[in-house]
Amino acid sequence: MKSLAQVVPLYKGENGHPGANKNCYGRNGSVTYIMVPIGTVVKEQGTMVADLSQHGQEYLAAFGGTGGKGNRFFLSNENRAPTTTAPGVLGQERSLQLELRTMAHAGLVGFPNAGKSSLLRAISNAKPAVAAYPFTTLNPHVGVIKYRDHEQVAVADIPGLIRGAHLNRGLGISFLRHIERCRFLLFVLDMSSPEPWTHLEHLCYELDQYEPGLSKRPQAVIANKMDLPEARGNLEALRSRVAQRVIPVSALKGENTEEVILHLRELYDGYVQGDHSGTVTRW
Ligand SMILES: Nc1nc2c(ncn2[C@@H]2O[C@H](COP(=O)(O)OP(=O)(O)OP(=O)(O)O)[C@@H](O)[C@H]2O)c(=O)[nH]1
Ligand SMILES: [Mg+2]
After folding, report:
1. What are the residue boundaries of the Obg domain, all occurrences included (predicted)?
2. Is the pTM of this model over 0.90?
3. Domain spans, the chain
4. Strand, helix or coil at 207?
5. Which of 188, 203, 252 to probe ligand 1 with, by most ligand atoms within 8 A of CB?
6. Are the CB atoms for 82 and 74 separated by under 8 Å?
7. CATH 3.40.50.970 for the 106-272 domain, yes or no
8. Chain-centroid distance, C-alpha 256
């Protein structure tokens, strides 16, 4: 994935800007670019005015002013010492907020400590921190899976969600903006915890509190920590309770992560072929 788009406060001298004319200083050539990462949303007073989601995309943020004309400009054969001047015109002023929303095809959603970062490490080139305490991940990480045919699928690991996150418990849900762009979701469950299927219900609820319908994106459930004895008894119970495809793995030991990689490719191919229905895919 290429990584830059541009916000462009521009001196242009055209497009009907009142102060602009062909003689202004700073016309074409005096463009000020601000390079921003792909996925940056430009907002003005809370309203989105641009979504820079493509490499090289530009947003013309503000016109510059026109320079004034000094005495020399009025120099002529008739007037060798002009005292005339012409004032310039002030540039446009805007106050814009730049908000980064991670660009990834798939998002890993789970309770803290479920093993999201461990899974991302196991399936992609990313190396997010892993630790035995909750809220290790404080910012999203994106890893890329490269397939033999050179196709690539980007997966975002986001901070853990807890029940009541939409009421600002835990880390809150503000980082769910990173999930908004994901085409499909992997719900990561710690199968060694009691009744892990209840986590799935809570996660879906929190997603829908953030954006109704968000939890309905094409998805799969990753039943993690299957190497632990407590996890094994939960697998069949989970399968009988959820409609989604369940993929048992041990992210720690790298067991069955291949199935996750292949399934992500299926989801990706479905997306590329135009299955953008946004509804739960049931297997
Ligand atoms: N036994 C076992 N432990 C695991 C497995 N996956 C992760 N862990 C452990 O679980 C703990 C949490 O793993 P992380 O990958 O940091 O979990 P996370 O979901 O990213 O956690 P947050 O960033 O806090 O949301 C670590 O001690 C991992 O080693 C697994 O498959 N089996
Ligand atoms: Mg983590």
Report:
1. 1-103
2. no
3. 4-100, 106-272
4. helix
5. 252
6. yes
7. no
8. 27
